[in-house]
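Hi R.,

Here's the chain you asked about this morning:
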Amino acid sequence: MVTRDHLRHEMAIRRLTVSRTEQLTPAIVRITLIGDALDDFSASGPTDHVKVFFPDPATQVLTVPELRADGIHRPTDGVILSRDYTPRQFRAAAFGAAELDIDFVLHAPDAAHGDPTDPAGGGPASAWAAQAKPGDEIAVAGPRGSRLAPQDASEAVLIADETALPAFTRWLELLPASTRITALLDVADEEVEPYLSEEQTRRASVEWLYRIDGPGQLAEAVRSLEFEPETYVWAAGEASTLVPIRRYLKNEVGLRPDQLDVQGYWRRGIVNLDHHAPIDPSDPD
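And the predicted structure, written out as tokens:
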């Protein structure tokens, strides 16, 4: 049995300010946020997520729900724009302000290769991140809770595309040193590789799969793996790509529910996908 403990966090909606930005790759930018509201922030799981609220591009007005004793209330006017993101790193206040890093994909992972309909990283979130500068304001809600990394898995297989790289790097940091990690990274091309540090690439056996080289590589790579009795598998990225992989791991490999977590972070043709929804409606369990 592979166990992942759960922690609950008190709900909060925080108005924060951009402190600095860093271009990590041509397609990924890191935005560092600061604000007194971060003093009680906590995100201790590899797959934690926050809801980020952006200004209306037409008016530049930031409209944010209000948190009251009886729940969350939407304002009567204004446009609410939000997307879910992984908090890449949080640094509590010591001698300076507390800081929260969030990494943004600036365009759809496949937009440069003939599929401009992909919404991941597109729209107002991408546009805001591409132009963000110190002093800009956004709001961050959550996380509502943390699902911790398993401490009893002898081996972990981690599968991610560009949108899931922040969570992937958190897995590298939070899994025990005794856990052997195999990583399959399904990305557009080699320009994504600098996202990982040398230390991170040493932590896992990493195989880069470039979509520019053709389809089907991820499924083939997964089928080439051998799985131990207590292997834990986490996969996240474009939902339709991951559905057949989930079916293979569940039905042919026979992984138990406690060994398998597959999350659709986005889906081609769908704007603002609810990643809480089952990735495979025909087999939601």
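The mean pLDDT is 91.

Let me know if you need anything else.
M.
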